[in-house]
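Section 3.1: Structural characterization of target chains.
Under the original work plan, the team committed to producing a structural model for every single-chain target entering the pipeline before any wet-lab resources were allocated. The record below documents one such target. The sequence was received from the expression subgroup and is listed exactly as submitted; it comprises 109 residues.
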Amino acid sequence: MPRKKIIEAIRKKMDSPEVVSKLSRTFRVLGDPTRTKLIFALSKEELCVVEMSLLLGMSHSAISHQLRPLKDLDLIKCRKEGRKAFYRLNDEHIENLFNEGLKHVLERA
Protein backbone atom coordinates (compact mmCIF):
# COMPACT_ATOMS: atom_id res chain seq x y z
CA MET A 1 0.00 0.00 0.00
CA PRO A 2 2.71 2.62 0.66
CA ARG A 3 3.74 2.47 -3.03
CA LYS A 4 0.30 3.74 -4.00
CA LYS A 5 0.86 6.85 -1.86
CA ILE A 6 4.21 7.46 -3.55
CA ILE A 7 2.64 7.16 -7.00
CA GLU A 8 -0.15 9.58 -6.07
CA ALA A 9 2.34 12.08 -4.64
CA ILE A 10 4.42 11.96 -7.83
CA ARG A 11 1.32 12.30 -10.00
CA LYS A 12 0.27 15.45 -8.11
CA LYS A 13 3.69 17.01 -8.68
CA MET A 14 3.75 16.38 -12.43
CA ASP A 15 3.15 19.43 -14.55
CA SER A 16 0.32 19.96 -16.99
CA PRO A 17 0.40 18.14 -20.36
CA GLU A 18 1.20 21.47 -22.07
CA VAL A 19 4.31 21.98 -19.92
CA VAL A 20 5.46 18.40 -20.44
CA SER A 21 4.94 18.79 -24.19
CA LYS A 22 6.96 22.02 -24.39
CA LEU A 23 9.74 20.50 -22.30
CA SER A 24 9.82 17.49 -24.61
CA ARG A 25 10.00 19.77 -27.69
CA THR A 26 12.82 21.73 -26.05
CA PHE A 27 14.94 18.62 -25.58
CA ARG A 28 14.11 17.45 -29.11
CA VAL A 29 15.25 20.77 -30.59
CA LEU A 30 18.44 20.69 -28.52
CA GLY A 31 19.07 17.14 -29.75
CA ASP A 32 20.22 18.42 -33.14
CA PRO A 33 24.05 18.70 -33.37
CA THR A 34 23.97 21.97 -35.33
CA ARG A 35 21.59 23.61 -32.88
CA THR A 36 23.73 22.29 -30.01
CA LYS A 37 26.72 24.07 -31.57
CA LEU A 38 24.69 27.25 -31.88
CA ILE A 39 23.64 27.05 -28.23
CA PHE A 40 27.28 26.42 -27.28
CA ALA A 41 28.43 29.48 -29.24
CA LEU A 42 25.64 31.69 -27.90
CA SER A 43 26.45 30.60 -24.35
CA LYS A 44 29.81 32.30 -24.86
CA GLU A 45 28.88 35.43 -26.83
CA GLU A 46 26.09 37.31 -28.54
CA LEU A 47 26.53 36.70 -32.29
CA CYS A 48 25.00 37.72 -35.59
CA VAL A 49 24.10 35.27 -38.38
CA VAL A 50 27.25 36.16 -40.35
CA GLU A 51 29.45 35.34 -37.35
CA MET A 52 27.62 32.06 -36.70
CA SER A 53 27.90 31.23 -40.39
CA LEU A 54 31.68 31.72 -40.29
CA LEU A 55 31.98 29.81 -37.03
CA LEU A 56 30.04 26.75 -38.21
CA GLY A 57 31.00 26.90 -41.90
CA MET A 58 27.39 27.07 -43.02
CA SER A 59 25.39 29.41 -45.25
CA HIS A 60 23.47 32.32 -43.76
CA SER A 61 20.18 30.73 -44.78
CA ALA A 62 21.15 27.41 -43.15
CA ILE A 63 21.96 29.23 -39.90
CA SER A 64 18.67 31.14 -40.05
CA HIS A 65 16.84 27.86 -40.63
CA GLN A 66 18.47 26.36 -37.51
CA LEU A 67 17.76 29.45 -35.40
CA ARG A 68 14.02 29.37 -36.11
CA PRO A 69 13.11 26.44 -33.82
CA LEU A 70 15.32 27.89 -31.08
CA LYS A 71 13.41 31.18 -31.32
CA ASP A 72 10.04 29.40 -31.50
CA LEU A 73 10.71 27.77 -28.12
CA ASP A 74 12.07 31.00 -26.59
CA LEU A 75 15.54 29.49 -26.14
CA ILE A 76 17.21 32.46 -27.84
CA LYS A 77 16.31 36.07 -28.41
CA CYS A 78 17.22 38.63 -30.99
CA ARG A 79 18.42 42.23 -30.73
CA LYS A 80 18.46 44.49 -33.79
CA GLU A 81 21.30 46.91 -34.39
CA GLY A 82 20.76 48.72 -37.65
CA ARG A 83 20.37 46.04 -40.30
CA LYS A 84 22.06 43.34 -38.21
CA ALA A 85 20.34 40.99 -35.82
CA PHE A 86 22.30 39.72 -32.83
CA TYR A 87 21.29 36.55 -31.05
CA ARG A 88 21.86 35.40 -27.50
CA LEU A 89 20.45 32.86 -25.11
CA ASN A 90 17.10 33.91 -23.74
CA ASP A 91 18.01 33.49 -20.08
CA GLU A 92 20.28 31.78 -17.57
CA HIS A 93 18.04 28.69 -17.47
CA ILE A 94 19.03 27.73 -21.00
CA GLU A 95 22.70 28.38 -20.26
CA ASN A 96 22.47 26.32 -17.05
CA LEU A 97 20.72 23.47 -18.87
CA PHE A 98 23.43 23.44 -21.55
CA ASN A 99 26.29 23.70 -19.04
CA GLU A 100 24.92 20.88 -16.87
CA GLY A 101 24.55 18.66 -19.93
CA LEU A 102 28.09 19.50 -21.00
CA LYS A 103 29.47 18.73 -17.53
CA HIS A 104 27.69 15.40 -17.56
CA VAL A 105 29.16 14.47 -20.94
CA LEU A 106 32.68 15.60 -19.99
CA GLU A 107 32.59 13.58 -16.75
CA ARG A 108 31.78 10.43 -18.74
CA ALA A 109 34.47 11.06 -21.37
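Residues 92-108 form the longest helix (17 residues).
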